[in-house]
């Protein structure tokens, strides 16, 4: 089972958006997917409940934050974990023990980018990550043309082994439309999602390659 964790210490960076869209993408490809929502807000869990009402969509198994046993069906091929913001220290260490791939979404503001660097430093100093060499992929979120602002972050990440700036996602109403229906942007009907799908490609390619696993 492939375990992919989505986290960032900053709230509202797009963790649940990336987690749900990734889960929907793999499910739409016929994979058996589970999403574990460790955020008491349970946005991803609500999304999955909405999704599973629609028989035309491939179902996804949802695990609630309060479910300490954290069991997923044996047949699960992809487990996506949505981690709440502001998780640090021992709690963070305990959680990332399970991760082999970590996706960090970050928004295009100098403050968020600086906070993201600090967070990645904290992640890299976590013994379970250093030891197992879990890979970290940064996803710029809600970019709208100002992805240049990430050049500096990219240069910084290039120096840290096992860490990569993977893709930039635009600010798009398609994410709002999709989440309301328990879908991911890949599953929206019509062609308005063409650009979004193209922006997801580098992330999926990275996740499907050996570069994103220990
Ligand atoms: N690329 C995008 N385009 C448009 N809207 C977006 C995009 N990414 C996220 N959003 C919206 O921004 C809001 C915050 O995103 P999201 O809930 O994914 O962040 P989060 O990191 O999970 O937040 P929290 O820390 O509260 O859990 C949501 O309403 C979401 O629909
Ligand atoms: Mg969230």
Task: Report what the structure shows.
- The chain is an alpha/beta fold.
- The protein has a single domain, classed as 3-Layer(aba) Sandwich (Rossmann fold).
- The chain has helices at 15-28, 43-51, 89-96, 110-124, 127-132, 151-158, 173-180, 194-208; strands spanning 2-6, 33-37, 61-63, 78-82, 101-106, 135-141, 163-169.
- Helix 1 packs parallel to helix 2.
- The longest helix is centred in the middle third of the chain and has 15 residues, at 110-124.
- It is globular.
- It binds adenosine-5'-triphosphate and magnesium ion.
- The site of adenosine-5'-triphosphate has 19 residues, from helix 1 and helix 7.
Compact description:
The chain is α/β, with parallel strands linked by helices.
Give a topology summary.
Layout: E1 2-6, H1 15-28, E2 33-37, H2 43-51, E3 61-63, E4 78-82, H3 89-96, E5 101-106, H4 110-124, H5 127-132, E6 135-141, H6 151-158, E7 163-169, H7 173-180, H8 194-208
Parallel strand pairs: 1-4, 1-5, 2-3, 2-4, 5-6, 6-7
Helix pairs in contact: 1-2
The site of adenosine-5'-triphosphate (ATP) has 19 residues, from helix 1 and helix 7.
Total helix count?
Answer: 8
Globally, the shape reads globular
Give me the CATH architecture, please: 3-Layer(aba) Sandwich
Spatial order of strands in the largest sheet: 3-2-4-1-5-6-7
What's the quaternary structure here? single chain
How would a textbook summarize the main sheet?
7 strands, parallel
Integer count of domains: 1
* Helix and strand pattern: EHEHEEHEHHEHEHH
CATH fold-level assignment: Rossmann fold
Mean pLDDT: 91
- CATH class term: Alpha Beta
Count of individual beta strands: 7
Identify low-pLDDT runs.
Answer: none
| CATH H-level homologous superfamily name | P-loop containing nucleotide triphosphate hydrolases
Structural class: alpha/beta
């Amino acid at each position: 089972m492939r375990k992919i964790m989505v986290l960032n210490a900053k709230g509202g960076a797009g963790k649940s958006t990336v987690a749900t869209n990734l889960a929907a993408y793999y499910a739409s490809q016929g994979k058996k997917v589970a999403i574990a929502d460790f955020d008491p807000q349970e946005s991803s869990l609500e999304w999955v409940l909405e999704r599973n009402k629609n028989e035309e969509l491939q179902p996804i198994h949802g695990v609630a934050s309060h479910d300490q046993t954290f069991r997923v069906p044996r047949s699960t091929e992809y487990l996506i974990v949505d981690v709440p913001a502001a998780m640090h220290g021992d709690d963070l260490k305990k959680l990332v023990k399970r991760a082999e791939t970590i996706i960090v979404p970050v928004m295009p503001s100098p403050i968020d980018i600086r906070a993201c660097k600090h967070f990645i430093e904290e992640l890299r100093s976590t013994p379970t990550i250093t030891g197992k060499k879990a890979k970290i992929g940064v996803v710029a979120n809600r970019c709208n043309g100002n992805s240049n602002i990430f050049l500096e972050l990219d240069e910084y990440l290039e120096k840290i082994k096992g860490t990569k700036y993977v893709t930039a996602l635009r600010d798009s109403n398609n994410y709002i439309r999709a989440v309301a229906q328990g879908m991911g942007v890949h599953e929206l009907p019509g062609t308005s999602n063409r650009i979004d799908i193209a922006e997801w490609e580098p992330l999926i390619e990275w996740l499907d390659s050996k570069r994103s696993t220990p």
